[in-house]
Every structure is written in C-alpha cells, then in structure tokens.
Here is the input.
Amino acid sequence: MLRKISLTAASAVVVLATVGAPVASAGAVTDRPAAVAQRAQAAAPADNLAPGPYHRTLDPLVGTWKAVKYNYILGTGGKPIVSRDMTVRVRWISKTGGRFLEEKTEGTLGDRAYYRLGVLGFSPIDRRYEWTTFDSVTPTAMTYRGAPVSDEASVLSIPGEFTDPGVLGPDYLGETIPMRTVITIRSKNRHTFDLYFTPPGQPERLVDRVVYTRKL
Here is the structure.
C-alpha cells in the first residue's frame, strides 16, 4: 500500500547546528567571520549536509522514461489533450553532491513542441521536498515547497502557488493560484505526477497528469 506524506501543514521544523566561539587569549587575533563560518559548517551534523534517506526515496525516479501527458486545461468538454510521444530523462546532479534531481522532458503538447526542465530535491534543514519547473508553455517558474516531513513515503504532496498568465482564462489573469503536485512512486518502473489548481472561489481540480513508464 502506498503511504502518503501531507506537506500542506503550516508548521515548520528548523534544525540549527550551534557552535561555541573560542575564547580569545590575551593578544590573540580575533577570528575572521570566514573562519568562524568554516568551523560552523565542519561542526554541523552530517545529515544536514549530505544526502540522506529522504533523497533515497527519490532514487526510483532516475532513468529514461516514456511519458504520457493528460492536460485538461488545453482539452475541451472535460476531456484532456493526450500526448504520447514524450521522453523524460532524470538524473542526480553530481556537481550538487547528488542533492538534486534534474528532469528534462521533450515531446509535443497539442500541435506544438514541448519542453520542461525540473529540479527536485529535499532540504534536510527544512525537512521538506522542493520542486521547481520551467517549461515552454508557462512564462514563469512553477515553484513548490512542502511542509516538514517525519517519515518516508511513496506519495509526496507538494504545494505552491503561481501568478496566472491567463492559462485558466482571462478572468484569472494576474490572480494568485494555489497549486499542488502529487508524486506517486508506484514502483521502480512506473510513477505519476499529478498537478492540481485551486482557482479563487472554486474547488481544487486536476489540470495535468503525467504517467511515466521506464525505458531505461
């Protein structure tokens, strides 16, 4: 059974490493701020700096995927536009110390070429998942920040908000729209990304679903 983490709570847990400053002897030169910062970083708990079990939860997302995208915004009559030719490549970014996943999606959406770059990671300090995307449809970054988590799970619900450039229609142009991405890791060979919007005065609704099936 899939276990779900709800990341919509407003509470936050911040873990701070405290380091006592050395006592200067008579005539000693006062420590420079850079030296103090270096000692603080060296003394910080290792799990605040290195990837840990919450990063390992994301390991099944790594690989090359065939993606089928169901987009309800561009569809009509409640039926989505379906794109079946998308390829997604996901890797840990080694130059970040393996802290962040990079996702690159290419294909078509409707009659147009589609591209998306996404970065997904876990902040050990804030104990939350963070997800940001840039695509060829929306002229703004889509940023999601979760609430603190206390255990590992295969369903991640990550909220955010964006300023609508008109994708929901002229009535919502310039409005702040709450949104939520739900990542469901079903197995090492299959997972889904669901995107929900909550327009002002309306219930939350599914606007985009991507089903990933492993190629490599």
Q: What stands out?
A: Confidence is low (pLDDT under 50) at residues 5-31. The chain has one domain: 53-214. The first helix runs from residue 33 to 43. The domain at 53-214 is CATH 2.40.128.20 (Lipocalin).
